[in-house]
Specification:
This protein has 2 helices and 7 strands. The chain has 72 residues and is of the alpha+beta class. The chain has one domain: Structural Genomics Hypothetical 15.5 Kd Protein In mrcA-pckA Intergenic Region, Chain A, CATH 3.10.290.10.
Length: 72
């Protein structure tokens, strides 16, 4: 599991995927989310604007890598 530290109270899912270098741009993030390839706390998430808070865990379908949101 990789820990991704954010400086704010929350980060939106699309921004998080870019920040964690899971995707290269917002279009790629949008498509992954729309195609139900992203899980937040073990549930498929189709909301690009989903707010992620300290402790949330993100996983991309087809990858064993998990990312945990950590507030600084």
């Amino acid at each position: 599991m990789e820990f991704i530290t954010i400086e704010t109270e929350y980060i939106k899912l699309g921004q998080f995927l870019k920040f964690a270098n899971v995707v290269t741009d917002g279009i790629e993030a949008k498509l992954m989310i729309k195609n139900e390839e992203v899980y937040v706390n073990e549930e498929i998430c189709t909301m690009r604007g989903k707010k992620l808070y300290d402790g949330d865990i993100v996983r991309v379908n087809g990858s064993d890598q998990e990312y945990k949101v950590v507030e600084a």
